[in-house]
Design a protein that fits this description.
The complex is a heterodimer of chains A (325) and B (832).
Chain A (H helix, E strand, L loop, with lengths): L8 H20 L4 H12 L4 E4 L6 H11 E2 L2 E5 L6 H5 E6 L4 E6 L6 E5 L6 H13 L1 E4 L2 E4 L5 E6 L12 H4 L4 E3 L6 H11 L4 H4 L4 E2 H12 L5 H16 L3 E3 L3 H17 L7 H12 L4 E2 L1 H5 L4 H11 L9
Parallel strand pairs in A: 1-9, 1-10, 2-11, 3-6, 6-9
Antiparallel strand pairs in A: 4-5, 7-8, 12-13
Helix pairs in contact in A: 1-2, 1-3, 1-9, 2-11, 9-11, 10-11, 10-12, 11-12, 12-14
Chain B lengths: L1 H15 L5 E2 L2 H22 L7 H17 L12 H20 L4 E2 L2 H24 L7 H14 L6 H24 L11 H4 L6 H12 L6 H24 L29 H9 L6 E7 L7 E6 L1 E2 L4 E2 L28 E10 L15 E5 L5 E2 L6 E2 L9 E9 L3 H5 L21 H10 L6 H15 L3 E2 L8 H11 L1 E2 L1 H14 L4 E7 L3 E3 L2 E5 L3 E9 L3 E4 L34 H9 L4 H8 L20 H39 L18 H10 L1 H16 L10 H11 L4 H19 L10 H14 L2 H9 L2 H29 L5
Parallel strand pairs in B: 1-2, 12-13
Antiparallel strand pairs in B: 3-7, 3-16, 4-14, 5-6, 7-11, 8-11, 9-10, 14-17, 15-16, 17-18
The chains are: A alpha/beta (325), B alpha+beta (832).
Chain lengths: 325, 832
């Protein structure tokens, strides 16, 4: 940002930590700074990320790189049609020695869970994961286990191979704070990738640059970012606009408003601001809102994607209280 | 159905314009009834789907029945059905009404005959309007009969129609047009292209959209003409307002151009015939003109004012004096040397030879007679002007007097009383028409003539007694408020009211003189006027009429029965020879107007007349001694108009400057308080038109608000308007990128954007420096990117100010809409 102004001291540290994480991740995933930034934003907003793109563009790489750069437990689950809910949450096994049932935590007990090709698992399994995402807890055999903080699920989804998959229902997509499309890298980034990846995997060289405690502090700081009344109203205006758009069959939920503002806080904090501005909301509107929306039949006929609809809405909805009339 | 009603309403509204013509209100209810009768007939034929040709007869029958019922019910069968007797009765009433209308001047008493005529006339107009609008569907054409109705009072009365009446009449016609348009569009389909009120254009709250859609579905079965109707009303409203207000704002039409001397009514210029004017009709009109216009000016060799005669009216038909068609043979052209000798003037009478140089104003229309002192002997004038041998009127069949300048030499007889007394009392050698009075002249008038002239030994004595009767003994008063002219008017004037103006005085004296055996005629022209500078100036209120009496041996001599001076016609004067000999006015100290002014006027000096004029009735309209206001030449008007236009065009620029100045002052004020924390809460919010956003900014930082509003306006002026969703930061980025700002400008822009952003959204905005310099930098940078034309426009016609003005206008219109919809719901007709 071209504008410099006073950064509150407590944000200084935060920004530098976030910056370190970003740099670390970007050293692995070249030319995808927007995606990296969004990933970080979602992390700080205590949300979950859905990465949707064709195979081979670095979805898993991004998730892994983020996990690696923070010194925290990372689990990766490859979703397959035969995956069971207990494969995610964990099982209670009978311990012969103690003669008690003992809980074997599943992969969900980690700070960052990477769910690869989440749409390949059965809905039952999907919903097990989604419950954890929302509740931040796991209940097995009547016992509830709290999940560690930070807790972030990065799920990837392949929109091309739809054979034998169970696409996430809209209700479940709603749980993801944001969706990001990786997109193909720029030619020069791809060239660089060839050079770097030619030898060993860059992930191996990646050293953690932040601790869980640091990330927790970051999240705490983000919670304190100020959202003024006009900005809240603007967020509501944006969300309400999706509900009244003739191009959309399903608008965004109140949960999305919550997540939009939360993400905007993180976005502002990453920019070194202790207050949210409408620009934050504008930047985040497409990744946060688009995946929750269903285009109307007319819009589908015109091949208008929800992303385009949201972009249009952002352009149309007036920014509150800056209009001179 | 709706059209029939609208047509009836329009007709009745137009009929209201007739109000100044009547005394009393019976005509009002009568016309209302006539209109309703026609309306009922129209609805009936509409209901029965009668063919087009059948509607007017049905309407006419309804009207006939109505007239019979209200005016001849006694003679009709069952009060309603016309019988032979009722037809006769109506015809009789019609005849008497016709006579009354001929006889009375407006306002006429609304007696049965006149009311019948009015009701019948309005009913016929209603019939026509209904036929055109409701049957033939030519609502616009229906304006013609309505216009005909509206022109009746306009042509009869000199006074303009009062504007509320005009508004009512115009609204009636507009209502008719609206109803017609609505019917028409109703058959087309949905109306588009109507202005949306700002309320309608605003995004609808959730839920309202659905309801609105339902509403729309419900009304879609018939075309939705609500918006159109609104537009129609708005246009009509604007038209009526303009029609009322614009004439008030325009310079007054010059009445002089409109008064004619009557020539041309019957085809002047068509061949060599000359049409006879009705000069009397013009006289009062001129005397009543609201302001004096200069008619002519003259100088003469002895510098004394003289009456200037235009017409001599020689025939009296019992109602009024008229003029025999003047005859001018080619011998009597003015260019052929001296005119025919004045009739009756013998050599022994002393004459005053005077040369008068007359200049007629350009504004006189259609005057083909020359105003001349009597008797003219020789005239130097351009064009084919000829003299009538009998009256010495000089006229032309081709030329007009407007703008003419000519020289006339006169031999004015200057007889003394003694001379006149000594004239032989022989039968005057003159055409009989100067003595002719109709046989049916009321005997009271004959008796009066005998009584007044009783004891007169000579005709001169009789004439003097007559003049004295009018000016002294008869207790006549001078007033312009008289009714009509004619036989009864003459009787009324002489025997009862004894109030009138020069026309009545002159005509009455002429009539009485004839009855006393003195040949007489009525001269019409102007008095000698007022001296302005070195010229005598004659204006419209110097219009005058006086009797000329004939004495064998002296010829025609003017007399002056009209009261002169302060209580009469100001510039009139009494000729010296008409003053009674001293032995009879020994007690002449009686300060009657005639006596005083006659003595004052004896030397005919302008000073002598100056005093009485000060209280002069007509002169109160125009101060004496001041030159009549010369109308400014048209280039001056164009110049003034252009100046006003220019000033109007500069208004937006001035407003813009004012706004900017106000904002910069606020900026300075805030700058002085420096970076005080956000304690400057909203007390200093900008007033007027800057809207909620700026007010919100102002709530925290008045100077930031000022800068932001100014920046917004600046962008609008230069055509780079900020989008609705453009944040300050995005704006700064866009401008800096698109217009390639240099570092300074970009920094200034960023600083402003950041300040606004912090004021609006941050918990505490922190330090905000003075931004005046930033603003200037930005303005300069922005100005550098646009074309010169755009810059000029931004200064002269700043779009930001125009937009504000437009908003103001829209707000007003919305207000009207609300008013209209309020009234509409209640007044919407059920039919159709």
């Amino acid at each position: 940002m071209a504008v410099t102004h006073d950064v509150p001291p407590q944000l200084d540290e935060l920004v530098s930590t976030a910056h370190r994480i970003r740099e670390a991740v970007e050293s692995v995933v070249e030319g995808k700074s927007d995606a990296v930034r969004l990933t970080l934003t979602v992390l700080l907003a205590e949300g979950h990320l859905l990465i949707e793109d064709v195979p081979g563009v670095g979805k898993t790489m991004l998730a892994k790189a983020l996990a690696r750069s923070i010194d925290c437990p990372v689990r990766r689950v490859q979703f397959t049609p035969d995956l069971l809910p207990s494969d995610i949450t964990g099982v209670s096994a009978y311990n012969q020695q103690t003669r008690e049932f003992e809980f074997k935590p599943g992969p969900v007990f980690a700070n960052i869970v990477v769910g690869d090709e989440i749409n390949r698992a059965s809905p039952k399994t999907q919903s097990a994961l989604l419950e954890c995402m929302e509740e931040h807890q796991v209940t097995v055999d009547g016992v509830t286990y709290q999940l560690d903080s930070p807790f972030m699920v990065i799920a990837t989804q392949n929109p091309i191979e739809m054979e034998g998959t169970y696409p996430l229902p809209e209700a479940q997509r709603d749980r993801f704070t944001a969706r990001v499309a990786m997109g193909y890298p720029e030619p020069h980034a791809e060239l660089e990738m060839l050079d770097v990846h030619g030898g060993a995997s860059p992930l191996d060289k990646l050293q953690p640059v932040a601790t869980t405690a640091e990330v927790r502090a970051l999240i705490e700081a983000v919670r304190g970012v100020y959202v003024s009344q006009p900005v809240k109203k603007y967020a509501i205006d944006l969300v309400v606009a999706t509900r009244h758009s003739p191009d959309l069959r399903l608008g965004a939920s109140p949960r999305s408003t919550l997540q939009l503002v939360r993400a905007a806080r993180a976005h502002a904090a990453l920019a070194g601001r202790d207050y949210v501005i409408p620009d934050d909301l504008q930047d985040l509107a497409v990744p946060v809102l688009a995946h929750r929306l269903l285009p109307s039949v007319e819009a589908q006929g015109q091949r208008r994607l929800p992303e385009q609809v949201v972009t249009d809405l952002v352009r149309r909805v007036p920014v509150p209280e800056t209009r001179a009339s | 159905m709706r059209l029939s009603v609208a047509a009836a309403v329009a007709t009745f509204c137009a009929a209201i314009l007739l109000y100044p013509l009547f005394e009393g209100g019976s005509w009002f209810w009568g016309t209302l009834g006539a209109v309703l009768a026609v309306l009922a007939a129209s609805m009936l034929s509409g209901r029965l789907s009668l063919p087009l040709w059948a509607a007017p007869p049905v309407g006419a029958v309804a009207l006939w029945v109505y007239l019979t019922a209200s005016f001849a019910a006694g003679k009709a069968w069952a009060w309603v059905v016309p019988t032979k007797a009722s037809v006769v009765e109506l015809a009789r009433l019609f005849g008497s009404g016709w006579t009354d209308i001929q006889r009375f001047a407006a306002p006429v008493p609304a007696n049965a005959g006149i009311t019948l005529l009015t009701c019948g006339g309005v009913g016929l107009i209603a019939l026509l309007v209904d036929l055109l609008a409701a049957r033939m569907r030519r609502a616009a054409l229906a304006g013609l009969p309505l216009l005909a109705l509206a022109t009746v009072p306009a042509t009869i009365l000199a006074d303009p129609i009062s504007w509320p009446a005009f508004v009512i009449a115009a609204s009636g016609f507009l209502g008719l047009l609206l109803a017609d348009g609505r019917e028409r569009v109703g058959h087309w389909g949905r109306a588009v292209l109507v202005r949306r009120t700002t309320r309608a254009a605003a995004p609808q709250p959730p839920g309202a959209a659905g309801r609105a859609r339902q509403d729309a579905d419900r009304v879609r079965e018939t075309a939705d003409t609500r918006g159109l109707r609104l537009s129609g009303k708005r246009i009509g409203f604007a038209a009526v307002v303009l029609a009322v207000l614009v004439p008030a704002a325009l310079p007054v039409m010059e009445p002089v151009s409109f008064f004619t001397f009557g020539v041309g009514g019957r085809g002047a210029g068509a061949g060599n015939s000359i049409s006879i004017p009705n000069p009397i009709a013009n006289l009062k009109g001129q005397l009543e003109l609201p302001e004096q216009r200069v008619v002519l000016s003259y100088t003469n060799s002895d510098d004394k004012p003289r009456y200037l005669r235009i017409y001599a009216l020689d025939t009296f038909d019992g109602d009024q004096f008229g003029m025999t068609e003047p005859k001018g043979s080619p011998d009597n052209r003015t260019e052929n040397g001296p005119l025919p000798p004045p009739p009756g003037l013998s050599r022994g009478v002393p004459v005053a030879n005077v040369v008068t140089d007359i200049r007629i104003s350009d504004e006189i229309a259609k005057l083909s007679f020359l105003p001349l002192p009597y008797p003219p002997r020789q005239i130097q004038v351009d064009g084919d002007w000829r003299a009538d041998v009998g009256t010495l009127m000089v006229f032309s069949t081709r030329e007009e007097a407007a703008g003419l300048e000519y020289k006339v030499s006169t031999s004015e007889p200057a007889p003394t009383s003694e001379l006149l007394k000594s004239l032989p009392q022989s039968r005057p050698d003159l055409d009989d028409r100067y003595l002719k009075v109709p046989d049916d002249l009321p005997p009271e008038i004959r008796a009066l003539a005998d009584e007044v002239t009783k004891g007169a030994r000579t005709s001169y004595d009789a004439a003097v007694k007559l003049q004295e009767f009018f000016t002294k003994t008869g207790n006549f008063t001078y007033t312009l408020q008289t009714q009509g002219h004619g036989n009864s008017a003459l009787k009324d004037f002489l025997l009862r009211s004894r109030a009138g103006y020069c026309e009545q005085f002159a005509a009455s004296m002429a009539v009485l003189a004839r009855l006393a055996g003195i040949p007489s005629r009525v001269a019409i022209g102007y008095t000698g006027g007022t001296k302005v500078g070195d010229r005598w100036t004659v204006g419209t209120n110097d219009s005058h009429s006086w009797p000329e009496l004939y004495f064998e041996g002296v010829g025609w001599l003017p007399f002056e029965p009209t009261p002169t001076g302060s209580l009469g016609q100001g510039s009139a004067r009494v000729p010296a020879y008409t003053v009674p000999p001293p032995d009879r006015t020994g007690d002449g100290s009686t300060p009657t107007p005639g006596a005083t002014s006659s003595s004052a006027d004896e030397p005919l000096s302008p000073q002598g007349r100056a005093n009485p004029r000060e209280l002069d009735r007509e002169a109160t309209l125009q101060p004496v001694g001041l030159p009549a206001e010369e109308p400014a030449p048209w280039p001056a008007y164009v110049g003034i108009g252009a100046g006003v236009l220019l000033l109007l065009l500069l208004v937006p620029a001035a407003l813009r400057l004012l706004t900017r100045g106000r904002r910069l002052r606020r900026l300075d004020g805030a700058g002085r308080t420096g970076g005080a924390p956000s304690g400057l809460d909203g007390a200093d919010a900008p007033q007027g038109g800057s809207g909620a956003g700026v007010r919100a900014v102002a709530g925290r930082r008045p100077n930031v608000a000022a800068v932001w509003a100014e920046l917004d306006d600046l962008l609008l002026d230069y055509g780079m308007e900020r989008g609705a969703s453009e944040t300050p930061r995005a704006l700064a980025r866009r401008l800096a990128e698109r217009y390639e700002f240099d570092a300074d400008s970009a920094a200034a822009l960023a600083a402003v954007a950041s300040a606004v952003e912090r004021s609006l959204f941050a918990r505490s905005p922190g330090e905000i420096g003075p931004m005046r310099q930033d603003l200037r930098t930005i303005r300069r940078a922005l100005a550098a990117t646009v074309s010169r034309g755009r810059r000029v426009r931004a200064v002269l016609l700043p779009p930001s100010t125009l937009r504000r003005l437009r908003r103001l206008g829209e707000g007003l219109l919305d207000g009207f809409d609300r008013l209209e919809s309020l009234r509409l719901r209640r007044a919407a007709p059920k039919g159709s």
